[in-house]
Amino acid sequence: MPKCTQYSDGAPCWPELTVTDLGGAAHFYGEVFGWTFRSLGPKVWDYTMCLMDDMPVAGLTPPPVGMENCLATWNVYLATSQVDASAVRVQANNGELVVLPTDLPGLGRVAMAMDREGAGFGLLQLGKESPPLLYKEIGAMCWNELFARSSVVADKFYTALFGYEAEQVGDGVDFDYVLWKVASRPVCGRLRMDGEQPPRPPHWTSYLTVDDSEAAERRIERAGGQVLIGTYDMPHGRVAVVADPFGAVFCLCEHPTENTW
């Protein structure tokens, strides 16, 4: 299994679901992915680690105090070797720091931010005692994309944070999709949303790996979730867009026979 203990700055490294009903979320995702769960207890806001074969793959967290009525949302943390310095760069480039850098026992040092268009994301500095994280295996995250309104604004903001190299894989006009790379290796994508897509605000989307996308769709529906876009073929694998019973949207990606990203 790919076990990651080190990530390049700017690489997505940890998905996290903000949801009021932690127990209900644990039941749903346990049914869909076979995850097990370990709560870190009330001293750390009942933060819950999601495990696949005893390996951490994601987190569940309740909304911050005062935001208990916020919508359930999947967030992604981008790796950084210096979370405090990255938090300063967020503000210097007209982003917003939502949660100041703080230590999260069992994971590392974290902060939450929003980019210039309001898309939320996290910053994570893994510590020496941070556990290895499972990646690109069944039940684990395998890819992330930013859906942005302005490609110029998004590219400028995130490049200033992490020094991404950009490779346009669309035509840049009707289909504006950029691979963001670190040391020539793709780590995530950026898609410019157009008027034909549902009017969602800018956001990050996480892909979670399954062995059979259509079978996972059936488990999602049986557990009370929704299939928003059924399985379809993409160059990097078969994918689907789904939502949990609380409205949090995420993507499925059928486990590829080889690494196509």
Automatic annotation (TrEMBL):
Under Gene3D superfamilies, the record lists:
2,3-Dihydroxybiphenyl 1,2-Dioxygenase, domain 1
Q: Which residues form the VOC domain?
A: 11-126, 140-255
List the Pfam families hit by this protein, alphabetically: Ble-like_N, Glyoxalase_6
Highest taxon of source: Bacteria
Q: Which InterPro entries match?
A: Anthracycline_SecMetBiosynth, Glyas_Bleomycin-R_OHBP_Dase, Glyoxalase_6, Glyoxy/Ble-like_N, VOC_core
Name the UniProt record assigns to this protein: VOC domain-containing protein
Q: Which organism is it from?
A: Sphaerisporangium rubeum
